């Protein structure tokens, strides 16, 4: 018959840990959306954007100083996310909640590909490209249906104005120096403290306080699986490092 063993042979102890886990936390980063064609955060500076440092643009100061440049960058990223489709990693994660006693999905990503893959409860630690709001009064803003006119080469785009107070509309993401949505981060911490397995997928583990969650889980006795094609700061802390792409590894892991 056809050999239907997963392409990737995982350590038996890892497979057992996943099978026996009561509560799994999965922490996803931009690497999970990479195979959907959404540039990872540190690769989001391709083409004309490459002359900018993402950490420079993803700040309230940058928006204050040049709202049209920052809005143009986010509209380009939103357009890329709208054009993208969930990949096998997102689909495998959506399927995990069906056969695990408890899965808490925590993402650093600002796209909605987990939701579009069928994950129904997604904790967004860094907000969303799809929930813009007024920078002055906080009122949420509805995007027009049609695709953003892609600022092909990173053209400046004037942000829309709030219909209530005429303030500038800003992206619904958490910028560097801004605090994370309290409820989301509290829920993520709770889950990390109570899980018995945390799977960190597709993140460079550089941005805090999100990057602290795997350490918090370990400090509370959880085991830690990292899935990433590259080495990260988490390597020395993971119980298992699975080197590979999320879209290859996750479907094999949950097969
Ligand atoms: C806060 C939204 C204070 C915007 C983002 C010095 C030391 C420590 C901390 C700090 C410091 N100086 C400043 C800080 C704090 C700062 C921080 O951590 N800075 C870092 C850079 C040092 N943190 C903050 O400012 C946070 N806020 O601390 O507030 C405060 C406290 C109390 C009260 C008030 C204020 C806010 C952080 C949130 C910033 N916003 N995103 C936007 O997206 O534009 S973070 C940004 O980076 C991304 O959104 C993403 O969420 C995050 C992490 O990126 P990754 O997801 O890891 O993506 P990356 O590209 O880095 O890596 C991709 C990985 O995937 C790679 O490892 C790659 O190998 C892998 N990969 C590639 N392909 C695949 C793959 N993996 C699997 N499969 C594949 N196919
Ligand atoms: Zn307003």
TrEMBL record:
Belongs to the sirtuin family. Class III subfamily. Keywords: Cytoplasm, Metal-binding, NAD, Transferase, Zinc. 2 residues (Tyr-74 and Arg-77) present in a large hydrophobic pocket are probably involved in substrate specificity. They are important for desuccinylation activity, but dispensable for deacetylation activity. One of its GO terms (molecular function) is zinc ion binding. The gene is cobB. It comes from Parazoarcus communis. Residues 1-255 form the Deacetylase sirtuin-type domain. Binds 1 zinc ion per subunit. The keyword Metal-binding applies. The active site is at 126 (proton acceptor). NAD(+) binds at residues 108-111, 202-204, 228-230, 246. Its cofactor is Zn(2+). Its EC number is 2.3.1.286. NAD-dependent lysine deacetylase and desuccinylase that specifically removes acetyl and succinyl groups on target proteins. Modulates the activities of several proteins which are inactive in their acylated form. It comes from the Bacteria. This is NAD-dependent protein deacylase. It is found in: Cytoplasm. The lineage of its organism: Bacteria, Pseudomonadati, Pseudomonadota, Betaproteobacteria, Rhodocyclales. The keyword Transferase applies. Substrate binds at residues 74, 77.
């Amino acid at each position: 018959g056809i050999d239907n063993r997963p392409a990737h042979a995982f350590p038996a102890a890892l497979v057992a840990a996943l099978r026996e886990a009561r509560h799994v936390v999965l922490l996803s980063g931009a690497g999970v959306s990479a195979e959907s064609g959404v540039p990872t955060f540190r690769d989001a500076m391709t083409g004309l954007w490459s002359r900018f440092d993402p950490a420079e643009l993803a700040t309230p100061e940058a928006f204050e100083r040049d709202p049209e440049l920052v809005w143009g960058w986010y509209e380009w990223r939103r357009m890329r996310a709208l054009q993208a489709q969930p990949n096998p990693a997102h689909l495998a994660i959506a399927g995990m909640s069906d056969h695990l006693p408890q899965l808490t999905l925590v993402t650093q990503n600002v796209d909605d590909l987990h939701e579009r893959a069928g994950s129904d409860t997604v904790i967004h630690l860094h907000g969303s490209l799809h929930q813009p709001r007024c920078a002055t009064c906080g009122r949420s803003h509805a995007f027009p249906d049609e695709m953003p006119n892609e600022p092909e080469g990173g053209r400046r785009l004037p942000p829309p104005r709030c219909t209530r107070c005429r303030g500038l509309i800003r992206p619904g993401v958490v910028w560097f120096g801004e605090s994370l949505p309290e409820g989301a981060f509290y829920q993520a911490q709770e889950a990390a403290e109570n899980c018995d397995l945390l799977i960190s997928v597709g993140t460079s583990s550089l941005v805090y306080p999100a990057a602290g969650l795997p350490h918090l889980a370990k400090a509370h006795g959880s085991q830690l699986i990292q899935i990433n094609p590259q080495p990260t700061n988490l390597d020395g802390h993971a119980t298992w490092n699975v080197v590979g792409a999320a879209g290859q590894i996750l479907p094999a892991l949950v097969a």
